[in-house]
glycogenin glucosyltransferase (Cynoglossus semilaevis), 327 residues
Amino acid sequence: MAAFVTLATNDSYARGAMVLGKSLRNHNTSKKLVALIGPQVSEPSKSVLERIFDEVKVVDVLDSGDTAHLAMMKRPDLGVTFTKLHCWTLTDYSKCVFMDADTLVLSNIDELFDREELSAAPDPGWPDCFNSGVFVFCPSMETHGKLIQYCTEHGSFDGGDQGVLNGFFDNWATADISKHLPFIYNLSSISIYTYLPAFKQYGGHAKVVHFLGKTKPWSYKFDPRSQQITGSVHDADTHSTFLVDWWILYSSAVVPMMQQQYGDQPFHSGCEEVNGEKTGLSSCVTYPPEAQMSAEERKEKWEQGQADYMGMDSFDNIQKKLDSFLK
């Protein structure tokens, strides 16, 4: 049995996972869909994911029965990485394709299951490394254990899962060219403007777009009538076509399910108002803001090793805080 696997550690990335799952369904994948989620994902978001994915599994690296538990006590900086490595524990499946929640499928990609572990596309920043946003792997508790051990002993050269995986699968660049996926299976949106002629030549064949960078699709606003993206003008202009594709799928396929789950609870609009009027739920999404924790609650989460490394406690936010103190 084979499956596409993704990971969402909070409600923001859960929205990305919902769109990814729907894009796989829309392109008629014959494979199972699995979502790993962190304990911070809300129940309504989990319910929506359960309608899209065949299996939704809560993973918590602080579970005392988890092999990553003691390792994380030594390396709390790699909390999100330990969570992502859970995908190797999905031993009900013989082969899987992992996809980050900020990816969008543009056509059927079931042929990826013909590839072997570890197959991935080159990273645009350093092509001798693979990008860990899309990769083929074979679940194995033995491999999982070795990855955890490597992670604990060597850490990550980039602070995340990509550094760990490239260190562990260190012969990817030279051993077997068949494990190098074509770039069309992991088209980095930020690469479009770094080599625009190549994008114009080959971009039409893209099968997966990966929204790399600080600003994710769900961070923008969308006017469903004009189909215009607003937010960071530079970023939005860079990959506006793909962003519009993401938002159209989000508003048409995901919003109705979210509305059903949240019911009368207040929503924060992800769309622009048109002529002072709010757009209907049938046209666009309104979603709840992330739950705000008190300073004491955040401190307690940190002490428990449950910092929101992909949200409020991201490296960028920590850096901003440090910069403000240094000034």
